[in-house]
Design brief:
With 521 residues, the chain is an alpha+beta fold. It is 29% helix and 22% strand. A hairpin with a 6-residue loop joins strand 7 and strand 8. Helix 4 packs parallel to helix 10.
Length: 521
């Protein structure tokens, strides 16, 4: 059964010994972050990293408990998605993708059970829900929430685990994204949707429409002027408002769906339904025309002025460095609704490993079958935590023709968020990409740097502080596969050192005795 809300998830964590309640008074300004950072880098008795989820019951200056590190271990990530292995989700995705067009009546009949199962995942709107237990439209103040300041040089307090809901002005499709929000004051916050994010595209489309109404000639300039990373002030932008809702403290499937790189036409609410195997129940907002998860702990309703940008940041980011200050739209609060005695769910990012590392590894497993739709020769991928996901991707392929590794690199750079990957290393199918020691040994032995490394220019992550320009820079691909004669390599390729199977069997039969004699028992 799916977790119906955050509270049921917390109960499950506690029952499994995966959550600790902290009764000591702690300050949301820096202290919670420092405690969580220490815990996330600690090991349990079995040597596993991550530490427990933490529920701070006595945050300074308020009575709202703070939940953090809920996804901060491999085990909890599996618990959140209710699987024994993250590859189970990949298998389910592949089953749906492998469905072929029905060729006759019998094929159509066979498809009915799968279509019926799919229909269970679509969200449904209900009349009310727990997030409506308290509705506040006057006397609003974001500072009543225990919002964290995570690092000493952060520009202020940041909402770090929000599900930000917007609507495509062209299609009406909803999007749920996760964009940090710097609290400017009690009524406003920064909306840090980077220019490649879907929320930013909804914002740009609203700007285009406004510009076309006010000055058709100006509409063509909108792309270069907006959504962060532009360093261009807001003079001359068209007026108008874009409605936004923010859900805080959702069930784990909804929270996770906000970071999954779903296909453009698939709503995150449907992704969440697929992950939890039950539809997400939604309720209408009070002051904006949007639907939000009914079981959320806290809902923030408001709008973004199209012609208003404000400096947001710096912010200590998952790269391990502070992302720089830049111009972003401003969220204006119009309503807060919440459960009675709400719980504030949050996270911190910084030098890995942190909670986001385990969320990112889950995305890696889910993204693999989607990647293989367009790049079928890909067998496995690894986005090492230390590479903070957009800096390094290791890819194994089944090589069938010369130059295929370079084809794969360019294909990856054309895929959604994968376009930001700074370095791609392509290896042969017999290399375990999850074993960094094996990758290092074989990749570095297999390359001639001048021949096998290629560079290209293109969009880079907004958080890349080393790129030559904001959002634009270079990337590197390394072909670490065996080189063929058809690729111009005419020398013999040496064999790998491996013991023969017969000798292994003979030693296996003696190994228990040898272990005792060697003192290794």
């Amino acid at each position: 059964m799916a977790y119906k809300d955050l509270r049921q998830w917390i109960n499950a964590l506690e029952s499994a010994g995966e959550l600790k309640r902290i009764k000591t008074e702690v300050d949301p300004v820096l202290e919670i972050a420092e405690i969580t950072d220490r815990v996330s880098k600690s090991r349990d008795k079995s040597g596993m990293l991550g530490g427990p989820a933490l529920l701070f019951e006595n945050s300074k200056g308020g009575r709202i408990p703070v939940l953090i590190n809920q996804f901060g271990s491999e085990r909890r990530m599996r618990m959140a998605l209710e699987v024994d292995s993250l590859d189970e989700i990949s298998s389910r995705i592949r089953q749906f993708m492998d469905v072929k067009s029905p060729q006759g009546l019998l094929d159509k009949v066979r498809m009915l059970p799968m279509l019926a199962e799919l229909s269970k995942f679509f969200p449904k709107t209900v009349s009310t829900g727990p997030c409506k237990e308290s509705i506040q439209k006057g006397g609003l103040d974001l500072n009543q929430l225990p919002i964290l300041k995570c690092w000493p040089r952060d520009a202020g307090k940041f909402i770090t685990l929000p599900c930000v809901i917007t609507r495509d002005p062209k299609t009406g499709k909803r999007n749920v994204g996760m964009y940090r929000m710097q609290v400017f004051d009690g009524l406003t916050a920064g909306m840090h949707w980077q220019r490649q994010k879907v929320g930013a595209e909804h914002y740009r489309e609203m700007l285009r429409r406004g510009a076309e109404r006010e000055c058709p000639q100006a509409a063509v300039d909108i792309m270069a002027r907006t959504s962060g990373g532009s360093q261009i002030p807001d003079e001359g932008l068209p007026s108008g408002k874009m409605e936004v809702a923010v859900a805080l403290g959702t069930d784990p499937a909804v929270t996770f769906s906000a970071i999954v790189p779903a296909p453009p036409d698939v709503e995150e609410y449907l992704v969440a339904g697929f992950l939890r195997q039950q539809p997400v129940e939604l309720v209408k907002c009070e002051t904006v025309d949007l639907e939000v998860p009914a079981a959320s702990e806290i809902i923030l309703e408001g709008y973004v002025n199209l012609d208003e940008l404000r400096t947001e940041g710096p912010f200590g980011d998952h790269t391990g460095f502070y992302s720089l200050a830049d111009l972003y739209p401003v969220f204006h609060l119009t309503c807060i609704s919440c459960r009675k005695d709400p719980i504030y769910a949050t996270t911190i990012v910084g030098k890995p490993p942190q909670e986001d590392a385990y969320m990112g590894k889950a995305v890696e497993r889910i993204f693999l079958p989607l990647m293989r739709l367009t790049i079928p020769e890909v067998l496995d991928i690894n986005l090492p935590v230390e590479g903070v996901f957009h800096n390094l991707m290791i890819v194994s392929i089944r090589k069938s023709y010369p130059g295929q590794a370079r084809k794969v690199m360019n294909a990856i750079w054309s895929l959604g968020q994968a376009m930001f990957t700074k370095c791609i290393v392509v290896v042969d199918e017999d290399v375990n990409v999850q074993d960094l020691a094996e990758v290092t040994l074989k990749a570095l032995n297999n390359i001639d740097p001048e021949r096998d490394i290629q560079f290209t220019l293109g969009p880079v992550d907004s958080l890349d502080h080393a790129s030559r320009l904001p959002n634009f820079g270079s990337k590197m691909g390394i072909d670490a596969t065996r080189k063929w004669t058809s690729e111009g390599f005419n020398r013999p390729w040496p064999g790998e050192i491996l013991m023969d199977d017969e000798t292994k069997r003979r030693v296996d039969s003696k190994w228990k005795t040898l272990v005792k004699e060697l003192g290794m028992a």
